[in-house]
Amino acid sequence: MSMRKQVTLQTIADELGLTIHTVSKALRGLPGMSEATRKAVVELARELGYRTKEQEAGIAAERIPWSNAKPRRFAMLIVGDSAFHRIQLEGVRVRLNELGHSLYPLLVPAGISEADGLRDWLDGNGLFFADGLFLTAVIPEWMESVLLELPMPKVLLNYPPDVTAVDSVIWDVEFAIHQSMDELYRAGHRDILYIGEIGRLRGFRLRWSAFAAAAERLGLHGLANHAEHVTGDFSDRAAWMEQLSAKLGSGRYTAAIAAIPGTAEWVYVAAGFLKLSIPEELTLVGMENEAHPRYESMSRPLLLIREAGERAAELMLRRIANPLLPYEQVRLRGAFHSGETIIRRKP
Fold first, then answer.
1. Tell me: the pLDDT tens digits for 136-185?
2. Is the confidence at residue 252, as pLDDT, over 70?
């Protein structure tokens, strides 16, 4: 008998010191407990391999192969090294392991800059022995176009390029920007500064487009001109900080959206130099990949990066088991963490 069949609700309840009723409600997504308790129940159930009947039915309905199918080995291509990739990798790996499969990362060397060199490197690193390939969100677009042509199952953890036949899943940053704008508008803010590069990656461009669309939707027509915001290349840190300080020090803006992960802490630095108090003098919304260790109280939309990795694993197995099914483009939308950095502006 498999471990999954041996584990019961009572096993989980005993391990956590909870009642069976509480464990059952947690696994079915019902209210009546703290989020910490729900998270503990879900994580232990996954660790022990326990599934509810509803979860089993859902996997069957999605046409995802069970763990007793042939074990498969997948690759995830990574460009650069960051906590952002760790979150994606963890989500994919955990879900694949639950279903009896494995994942190995392929870290692309920094010196590769053309298609033939990329193909040679992939061949030399065993990619073509993998059963499928996961493509992360910050792969350069020239490289992504080469990889999307490979004759193997692929799942893109990104917004897909136009006219591309590929399964994809992404945490919906466009929705997150609209959420943030609505939160600021409800708090009385009309002069909102957008902070974030808008040219290098597809996700960056879509963030700005969503900001401009939200501004128009809310009647804030003067905000849609990118020249009025901090949209330059963040790699030139000195010039970028000079521009940011000039905008924040102008007195024009009552609120700001730090739309690219990693920029919110620099907003705090610039505000500190200008002696601007957050949130009393500057309301701030961040777009971080996860809670910032120094600014946990920051208001932010929750970006479902790990969850996107889990869904990507399911899409991959579904594609392999059902190659003729239509391609899917999945967007995951999270809640908004109110935090403490949005202050209501007096009329």
1. 988 888 899 999 998 899 999 999 988 888 999 999 999 999 999 999 99
2. yes
Of 303, 257, 292, the residue nearest 137 (C-alpha)? 303
Q: What is the residue whose two structure tokens read 């919906």?
A: 172
Confidence grade of residue 284 (pLDDT, cut at 50, 70, 90): very high
If we measure between CA atoms, which residue out of 124, 53, 136 comes closest to residue 88?
136
Task: Report yes or no: 222 and 239 within 8 Å, Cβ to Cβ.
Answer: no
The token duo for 172 is 């919906």
Structure tokens at 169: 């899943």
Query: Is residue 162 packed enough to be buried (19+ CB in 10 Å), middle (13-18) or exposed (0-12)?
Result: exposed
Cα gap 212→179, rounded to integer Å: 13
* pTM for the structure as a whole: 0.80
Cα-atom radius of gyration of the chain, to the nearest Å? 22
Write phi, then psi, for 235 (nearest 5 degrees). -65, -30
Tell me the CB-side half-sphere exposure of residue 54, using CA atoms within 13 A: 5
Cβ-count burial of 251 within 10 angstroms (0-12 exposed, 13-18 middle, 19+ buried)? exposed
- What is the Cα–Cα distance from 208 to 230, expressed in whole angstroms? 11
Domains and CATH numbers, the chain: 3-61 (1.10.260.40), 73-172+304-335 (3.40.50.2300), 173-302 (3.40.50.2300)
* Joined tokens for residue 170: 């992404």
- Rounded Cα distance, 246 and 224, in Å: 19
